[in-house]
Amino acid sequence: MGAVKGKRMPRAVRERQMMDAAVRTFAQRGYRAASMDEIAELAGVSKPLVYLYLNSKEELFTACIRREAAALVEAVRSAITPGEPADAQLWSGLRGFFTHTAEHPDGWAVLHAQARTQGEPFAREVAVMREEIVAFVTLLIAEAAREAHRNPSLPEREVAGLAEALVGAAEALAVWANTAEGVTAKQAATTLMNFAWAGLGNLMRGEPWSPPR
Q1: Whole-angstrom distance, CA of residue 54 vs CA of residue 51
Q2: pLDDT at 166 over 80
Q3: CB 43 within 8 A of CB 20
């Protein structure tokens, strides 16, 4: 239920209240269909107040994307303990990712289903977040190669491609996990580790799959 209109509260609290309402509305209605009237009503404030704080629908949507992207990246990073083996770090990061997307389905919908499909500048905001996660996973895969071989033989392009594939699989699996009944974050992370890390393990042992001639 929205807060009582006109109730005094700190600006930061009021702005967070409006952002929460905006994320929920954009996720459930879509960017094009969502209206500032709906967002104001859900937040329990007047529409002029929403405009006063956040200027326009486009700027509000951009602010939502940035907030949710920063929260997702932080969830992944904070789940990881530096210094652990690469597979343990990846496992922790995946659990952090799937836990966050499960606990914040509206935020994930804004990032994955809405912002990426609305063109610039929204798609670019999400791309920046994704590039940060891909870069982090690339480092983990490269570290795994170093752990497996003192002189790793995995080409830089192959490492980058594996990171892209792994992040793409995580994104698709998060969508599935949020719609499939009874799938936990731990189960989703385990599924992806079984799918990806088992294959990476073979690659690290020098046993890559090769297409038939």
Answers
A1: 5
A2: yes
A3: yes
